[in-house]
Amino acid sequence: MRVDHLERDNGRIVGIGRIEEDVVKVAYRRWAPIYDHTFGRVSTEGRKHAAEVINQSIDNGRVLEVGVGTGLALADYGRHLEVIGIDLSPDMLDKARERVAKEGLDHVTGLHEMDAGDLQFPDNAFDIVTAMFVMTVVPEPEKVMRELARVAKPGGEVLIVNHFSQTEGVRGWVERRMAPFAEIIGWRSVFDQSRVMVCDELTLTERKALRPWGIFTMMRFKKRAEQERPIAAE
Within a domain: residue 120? Predict the structure, then answer.
């Protein structure tokens, strides 16, 4: 189990290669019992903000949460929505299912073990697709972005909440120092925004730094409606 490689520019780490799925599963098996009380606390504000945005975006509809984890955001979604969650980690999903049963979250209609890079849903299936704190974890972020775009309806939204690394300053130095330990912590500390800007059918409509301390960023994309597709030249 290992990260394939560290990408360097003049000796400085500028990226982290593929993280294998088995590395992620092992890491999150360790995280599952303590996740809510560790990283879950740090990410609470970001999750709540994303859920609030989603609640206000549509009067009703289907929402897919990719990387649902232990289900920390599930109670924050409005009951006017149908919510489906997927995650690669069965240990995290067990926690999410316990949460749904304990809190009576009837608007959550499915929690599935699934690879974010190979979503088992048809095209154009969801009004909103969200991935919170996921893109730094998955083996191929670009592939995952394309899957999120595929399953979103034309005119619908893809909403990302994620950490994007800095190149300078104390924070940038810390992120680069953490990079060699990606296989242990289960996520990339060095991750550039360009890795999620790969879908022609998605238009970035909002980018906002979130609490705490602006560590995380929300990015909202709108999927181009069918009638907005450019006409191919003859």
Answer: yes
Q: What is the pLDDT of residues 165-209, one digit of tens each?
A: 555 444 443 444 444 444 444 455 456 788 899 999 999 999 998
Identity at 3, one-letter amino acid code: V
Structure confidence by residue, pLDDT tens digits, 3-22: 445 444 444 443 444 555 56
What 3-state class would DSSP assign to 68?
A: coil
Domain tally for the chain?
Answer: 1
Range of the domain at 143: 6-225
**Cα angle for residues 196, 14, 136 (degrees, 5° grid):** 40
Beta-carbon contacts of residue 34 (< 8 Å; ≥ 6 apart): none
Do 131 and 163 form a contact (C-beta atoms < 8 A)?
Answer: no
Half-sphere exposure of residue 194: CA atoms within 13 angstroms, side-chain side: 5
Identify whether 232 is part of a domain.
no
80 in any annotated domain: yes
**pTM check: above 0.70:** yes
Sequence-separated (6 or more) residues with CB below 8 Å from residue 73: 47, 48, 50, 51, 65, 132
Task: Residue 40: give its domain's CATH number.
Answer: 3.40.50.150
Q: pLDDT higher for 193 or 61?
A: 61
**Burial of 105 from C-beta contacts in 10 A (0-12 / 13-18 / 19+):** middle
Considering only residues 23 and 131, tell me which one the structure prediction assigns the higher pLDDT: 131
pLDDT digits (tens, 9 = 90+) for 134-155: 888 787 889 999 999 999 999 9
Question: What are the beta bridge partners of residue 66?
Answer: 86, 131
